[in-house]
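User: I'm designing a mutation panel for Integral membrane protein and want to avoid disrupting the core. Could you give me a predicted structure to guide residue selection? Please restate the sequence first so the numbering is unambiguous.

Assistant: Good idea. Sequence first, for numbering, then the predicted structure tokens:
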Amino acid sequence: MTGGTSGGGRRPGADTALELLVHGVGGTTPQEMLNDPRTVRITGDDTAAVFRRADDVEAEHDTARGPAARRGEPVPEAYVWCNLTSGNGSRALWLLLLPFMVVNLAHWMRPSVRDNRTPAVRLYGLLVRLAGLTLTVLLVAAVCEVALDLTAWQCAGTRACAEDHSWLGFLSPALSHDSWWSQPGRRLALAALLPALLTGLLWYLSHRTWNAYESQRPRERETEPDEAENRAGLGRPGFWYGRRLVARLRVAHTAAGLLTIAAAVGTAAARHDREPGGPAVLEALGLLLTATLAVGAGVVLWVVCSRGRSERRLDRHLDRALVRLLPLGSVALLALALVYAGWSRPGWRSDHGLPGDTAFGTVTLVQGLLVLALCVVAHLLYRGHPEPRTAMRGLAGPAVAMLACALGGVMSGGVSQRVADWLDGTGDTIEGPPVLLTWQASVIPPLLLVLLALVGWLARRTLQLRRTESVAVDRAYEGEAKDPGTTRRIASVRAMASLTDRAPRIIGISSVVTLVLGGLALAGALSTGETPAGAADGAAPFVRGAAETAQALGSWLIGVGFILFVTWGRRAYKDPTARRTIGILWDVGTFWPRAAHPFAPPCYAERAVPDLTWRIAGWIRATGGRLVLSGHSQGSVLAAAAAWQLEPSIRRRVALLTYGSPLERLYGRWFPAHFGPAALSDLHRDVDCWRNLYRATDPIGGPMRLPGACGPEVDHEALEDPLAYGRTERHPLPAPILGHSDYQADPLFAEERRTLLGRLGTDVPAPRACD
């Protein structure tokens, strides 16, 4: 029984109303959320917790106590979750895993369908998981390129380069007088420790964050008689518990990384042993090692392809044999490859660079084919159930996957180019990285030109929108004495806020241009085997000059961009202003469970959503009172996810109040399978009491746009911002433009909250369906 009872059987606190506040991006303190310097932690830990004002701690047992009770308002509680995504500056290193996070986003951008168990849905998830696997291989291959090829093979094997870097002297045949470590195979075996340590670090971080996030089990409950069997995606029992899949993907990607290192070391030695005059035993061992690596790669592919997410039930099973044996087998293969490469070969010399073009070219080609296949599957899914508001007509997932692959390529090429320049200095002592990486660097300047053109289009569009919004502002503040400066200022903020809706066009054009330029770079590298400047030999001087400029500028931009990337990431974790500026993108990416890549940054919602559901269900069962789940910005997404996880008997005591919410404007367009019109309409029917507030000046929040009569019931008309156009008796000083913040400052906020509590009342109305 969840509601209050009449007479003497009425439970303590049955007349109490609670407002559970969930903050948004950027984080805050419980003192700011509760507007009181004295707060007490009710439950939780240093990572995420629920706070109350000190005067409201015993509000359920003494309704006369506390400022909220005296004013007839609900007792406020603050759920503070900002430590799940924020921290010290060292956490900016998570940004180095940005390609993994982006490809994981592509998994959740699948178009909505009527039946989630169709083969096309499973194929979509499989293609994204394979794209994520190629990113792991690309990252490890890039580190192998730096440590094995550029450092141990080329620089240590070249006298001039080794003399410039004395720390490589013991590896150089010329400087160490053919010491034990100077043989190429042994140098490679020693250098392989660096990518092996990186792979082990990624495994450790994934395992540690699993203990902090995925190990938090959601509430277990029985299905109630009036509960629909086909629940929305975020309401399924196993949605926020991805333990089994993350464990499988973690061992598969770890094995893929170790096998990549073993292939880089072992195939170099095997290629030497296949030359005429080599020992037959070593040649046979090389062939056996190559075959074993191929079998290991097949096992990794089978693990990735054989199982996806299990959401319809809480899957407690763990593939323990697989989790233990696959990493151990990969470590054993790597050890065998190192021993095989370290075998004495006195006549072996590292005259040229390792053949990395084949490896990087294969990864790039596979990524392009996977993205194209993903486009076909996404188009078929969208055509079966088209939603007009879906971003890029269902192709957002493939576009984002393309950008993830491009980020991986740029980061790999950038690190390789910078290390090659550092080792080589101003001379020409080593050959440098593979030609393909140089071609990839050369396409960055034309891509930037396209982006600059898009920025120019956005600026022009903003000016056009500002003129349109000026008319709307004059109409909204009709009767006020008009001031051109004030009107222009408000109209400019509104125009800038509307640019969020242009993001699909920007992402789509960038992805198409990236795919085309990447294909041209791959074709150029494979067809000529030379850098862009070398391929332009014999061409017109203008063409050759442009090729040389693009090659040099692209290499320089990659290095500068990499430094700026880490610097901005660190600032975003330490500076609240920067955190609010770019935090929405990061919080959107880490909101979703790791379904495509286990090394992506951890999903904070797998901790936050169970926290909220446990608190809501526990308080309502204990008191039978009414609860307003009040979410701002990203907090509204967490609130909606928690509401979906509640059973109907609990949910009927909950009213949902969202403000500055990206539920439809961002999540509904980019993630239609889970936040599309059908899902949001179901949420409205489930919670019954839902009100959404937004402003035209808000660049993140917006209306829910539910169909039929549901729309006006949920969406309040856009709130006035600023509250006063000019100086008035109530606002004698100029009113600020609040935009995305301080929704509680509007008097309508408290009014809408009272209306929601009144609708809940003592006798709960049944959920209403909307056409």
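For picking mutation sites, this is relevant: Residues 302 and 384 are 29 Å apart (CA to CA). Confidence is low (pLDDT under 50) at residues 1-9.
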